[in-house]
Structures are given as structure tokens and as C-alpha cells.
Amino acid sequence: MSALLLQMMNGLSYGFLLFIITSGITIVFGILGVLNLAHGSLYVLGSFIGYSLIMQAGLPFWVALAAVPLLIAIIGLVLEMVLLRPTYKMGHLSQVLLTFGLAYIFHDIFSMMWGKNILVVTPPEAFNMSVEIAGNAIPAYRLALIVIGILIAIFLWFTQEKTKWGAVIRAGLSDKEMVGGLGVNIHFVFTCVFFLGSLMAGLGGVLGSPILGVYPGMEFQILILSLVVLVVGGLGSVTGTFIASLLVGFVETFSRYLVPELSLIITFALMALVLVVRPQGLTGRRVV
């Protein structure tokens, strides 16, 4: 029972981490219709910069947690304005090829700057301990990650569903021309959405580094898992991303614990099963 509880907590914290990471790519795809395959690279860049600030420069973890996401968001903003924006009228293929090419460029930069070894960030001192739950020692940092994930989920849901800004975003997704005709600068709105998506990647990078570590090539693993969550939850659905992240987090954690050699196969089997039963994803809308 103790091992089961530990794996459940690991799966829950991993699921919330996946949600933080994948919510960024979900927001960008759902609002802009852009599948950013460099999203995993932004996550890893956030992890590497966080490592440099915390482990090499000696800055507090919380300083890196505040600064790194903003820096990654600015980098993402530059990429959107300079490289992606000219491709909006060219179709999805050009965007996929461009962002996938960027991912390989980032990969070489990571290897040159930080090497190829696995680097691990020490959790903040306040959470670098264990908490006893039902006689089991649960890492306090994983519990903190669960709380942060819940708060971010509430914030994204409230922003999207209960604010004027969220209404403008939803309207822009449905009819860009109409929103533009009402005097709203829809391109500025979309740029802000990409800024938010990149910020989520950087936030996930800093939060995930004490648990997953960071190394070149990790960006492609994160990208694959993000796409699985995106497909399972429903393309562009934040609610679906939340549900799918927890589901994939549990499946990935327990499969690695029980049959580690088949964990990746089981994860993809879950995606295939969802596609067979609900091609639009768990909460996605059927496209006619």
C-alpha cells in the first residue's frame, strides 16, 4: 500500500507538471491554430537557464522561478513576431517545418553551452524535505508542484471563461475578421497568447528540473508527451489538457513502475484507444 500511495503521488505531481508544460502549446494551438513544435525546446531552455542561475550563479530558486519564465516568454515573443508571423498565411505545413527546424537548432545550442550530461536542480530549501502522509514519506516539492498546478489551472480557466480578455480570445478564434471590425487589435491579442504559451513553457522548465533533470534531447521527449496530451484531451481544449495530463501522468508513472520497458508503448496505446473511441479527444468538438 505504501508503494501504491507513493506512485499515486508521483503520478499526480507528474501529471500537473505535464499540464503546466502542455497548457502552453494548447493555448497557442487552440487560439492561433499554430502547432509550435519548438515548445519543448523553450521548456528545456527554461530548465537550462534555471540551472545556470540556481546551481552556478547561486541565486535563490524563487528568483529563477520569477525571472526565467519572463525571459522565455520574451524569446518566444521574438520568435513569433520575426519568424512565425510571416507564415500565418502559408498554411500549417510551413509552421510545422519551421518550428521543427528551430527545435534542432536549439538542440545544438544546448549541447554547445551546457554539454550532454544530465543536470539536476536542487529544490528550494523550504521544500527540500519529506512530508509524512499515511506513514509514507512524500517529497514536499512534489506536493508543492501539485498545489502550483491547481492554481495555474484555476487561473487559466478563470481567464478564459470569466474575463473580458478571455471573451476576446474566444471570439477571435471563431471569427478574426469580425473581432477586428469591432476595433480589437487581434494580432496584438494573438501575440499576447503566444507570450503566455511561451511563459508556461519556461515556468514548466524551472519547476520540472528538480524532478526530471535536464539534458539535450529532452526537448523531443517533452514534445512527444505534450502532443500525446494534446491529442488525448482534444486539440485546443484547456479543460481536456488538464484531464489528459493527469491521465497520462498516472499511466506513464505506473507503467514505468510496473513494466518500465513497455511504458512508452502503453502511453501511445492510450492515445490510440482514445482516437478510436473519440477521434476529437476527450473534450474536443467533432469537426464536420
Layout: helices, strands, pairs:
Blueprint: H1 2-32, H2 39-56, H3 61-84, H4 92-114, E1 130-133, E2 136-139, H5 140-162, H6 164-174, H7 176-181, H8 186-212, H9 218-233, H10 238-258, H11 263-277
Antiparallel strand pairs: 1-2
Helix pairs in contact: 1-5, 1-8, 1-9, 1-10, 2-3, 2-4, 2-8, 2-9, 3-8, 5-6, 9-10, 9-11, 10-11
Can you characterise this structure?
- There is one protein chain.
- The protein has a two-stranded antiparallel sheet.
- Helix 2 packs antiparallel against helix 3 and helix 9 packs across helix 10.
- Strand 1 and strand 2 form a beta hairpin.
- The chain has 288 residues and is mainly α.
- It has a single domain, classed as ABC transporter involved in vitamin B12 uptake, BtuC (Orthogonal Bundle), CATH 1.10.3470.
- GO terms for molecular function: transmembrane transporter activity.
- InterPro entries: ABC_transp_permease (IPR001851), BCAA_transport_permease (IPR052157).
- It is a multi-pass membrane protein.
- One of its GO terms (biological process) is amino acid transport.
Keyphrases for this structure?
single chain; 288 residues; mainly alpha; ABC transporter involved in vitamin B12 uptake, BtuC; two-stranded antiparallel ribbon; globular
Largest pleated sheet? 2 strands, antiparallel
Strand content: under 5%
The number of strands is 2
Q: Return the structural class.
A: mainly alpha
CATH topology: ABC transporter involved in vitamin B12 uptake, BtuC
Helix content: over 70%
Runs in which pLDDT lies below 50 for 5 or more consecutive residues are none
Measured distance between first and last alpha carbons? 47 Å
Name of the CATH class: Mainly Alpha
